[in-house]
Amino acid sequence: MKTRIDILKAEPQALQAMYGLEKYLQSTELSHAHNELIKIRTSQINGCAYCLDMHTRDARKYGETEQRIYLLNAWREAGLFSKEEQAILALTEEVTLISKGGVSDETYEKALELPGEKYLNQVIVAIVVINGWNRIAISTRKEIG
After folding, report:
1. What confidence tens digit (pLDDT) does each residue in 128-141 have?
2. Which structural domains are found in the chain, ordered by start?
């Protein structure tokens, strides 16, 4: 598959804006574990090989297990994810698939049980940011590695 234009080189201000969002997320209370689960699950849904390659490696660096990474796309059945992680993953799926009916009241209410409204805001921003990265990588055919 032939790669396409490198938006981030062609438009360095776009890269700076995206990195600004990443820098913001690094300054929040959002745990590395939660952030990587969000990034991997979103990238699975969107089919972004580049981001899956990057974030599964990053998750391992932060101590995520192979088993949980392999079973993330079946998190409801796996029994390996905490109630908090399940709430985050459900929200991740519904925000990523927003055109399928938005975020349900049930999912939102469960997500509100996270360590506070501020944390929920940070989770939502993390979901939005990785969706942006996925769309850049997929539309430009960013190569893994």
Report:
1. 999 999 999 999 88
2. 31-139 (1.20.1290.10)
